[in-house]
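Hello Y.,

Per our agreement to keep a running log of every chain we model this quarter, I'm adding this entry. I've kept the format consistent with earlier entries: sequence first, then predicted structure.
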Amino acid sequence: MKNSILFLILSVSVAFGIYSCSDTPIDDDGLLVTERAECYISMFELLGPDNRTVLVSSASVDTLNCTVTGVAKFGTNIKHVKPYCGLVSDAKMTPAMGDWIDFSQPRQYTVISGNRQVKKTYTITITVQGQ
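Predicted structure for the entry above:
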């Protein structure tokens, strides 16, 4: 019984070791490269210093024209906000989001598909309510 359990543990360990050393493609960021060619932003959020949304309502994401537009609440300092977005499965974005950034001018972000062959550049424009 003890030998059976040891054999099972050893077999599982070897199987995981072989799988992890397989020819699974990995990109320069250490992310898995897949077959997916889809490439788009599905949602966008903008946070203020208190880590709460500063948008009046959901941002408008136009996947055909590759634009995102949002309206921040009156009085928001859009020179110091944190953007976040949702992407289609397996895609990645450059530059990465989640850092404090100045959105007083439109910003451009590039979405890259899971197969790393399709790239779409989105222009994100934020205005302040009442302007």
